[in-house]
Amino acid sequence: MKSLLLALAIVVTASSPVVATQSPDRVIVQFASDSDEVPAASLAELARFARAHPDRDFSIEGHAILSESDNSPNYAIGLSHRRANRVRAAIWNDDFERWQLSRSRTMIVSAYGASRPLAGAAPTDGRNRRVEVMITESATGR
C-alpha cells in the first residue's frame, strides 16, 4: 500500500486545542499526556477531512511517548493503539451518520508506541503524542 503525501495538520496542546494549517492528504491529531480522548476541535477537522475524501481509504497511525504514566514500551504501544482506534471510531461514526454505511471505507490502524518520533523531536517531546491519518492508495486504485 502506497501512502500519498498529505498536509492537513491539527495541532492540539494539552491545555487548549488549536487547529493549525490544513493540507489535503494528512491529519495529525495531538493528544494530552496519558490520554486517548480525541480533542473536540480535532473531531471537527477529522469530519472535514473524511468528507473531503469520501471514496478514499485511510491509514491511521498511533504514537506515544515513554514518559506517559508508565515508562514501558508496552504501555506506549497500548496507548498509541487506543488513540488510533479512537480516531478511527470518530471517522467511522461520521461516515455512518452521513451515508448509513452506503460505502465501505477501509481504515488500517497501526500502533507504534514511542518507536517513531517526529523527525528532529526528542522521544519524550509532547508532539509525539499523536495520531496521523493519511490517505492510502488501495489495490483498486481509488
UniProtKB/TrEMBL annotation:
User: Where does the signal sequence lie?
Assistant: 1-20
Task: Say yes or no: keyword Transferase present.
Answer: no
Keyword vocabulary terms for this entry: Membrane, Signal
The chain positions of domain OmpA-like read 18-139
- Cellular component annotations (GO), alphabetically ordered: membrane
The question of whether Acyltransferase is a record keyword is answered with: no
The UniProt transmembrane annotation reads none
- The molecule here is called OmpA family protein
